Amino acid sequence: MRVTVDGVEVEAASGQTVAAVLLRLGRVSWRTTREAGRPRGIFCGIGVCHDCLVVVNGVPDVRACQRLVGDGDDVRTQHGAELPS
Ligand code: FES
């Protein structure tokens, strides 16, 4: 299947998480923290820490370690978080 990551079309396999696709591309961060702008990526890998938030198909705060990619998904880097602190 094909997905788009920050505007670049890439190959992805069925059953991969968004985080797996990003890591395979060599990305170690895909979000910045709300106030300090520090880079974040995968940390716990089990859906608990919310460090891996990313925008998928225009929806922010998607946990990349939990979301399986779908054909045609549009994955975007997220700046900060939409979640309340
Ligand atoms: S890496 Fe912790 S929630 Fe995704």
From TrEMBL:
State what protein this is by name: Ferredoxin
The yes or no answer to whether the keyword Transcription regulation is present is: no
Spell out the molecular function terms from Gene Ontology: iron-sulfur cluster binding; oxidoreductase activity
Q: Which keywords are on file for this protein? A: Oxidoreductase
Q: InterPro entries recorded for this chain?
A: 2Fe-2S-bd_N, 2Fe-2S_ferredoxin-like_sf
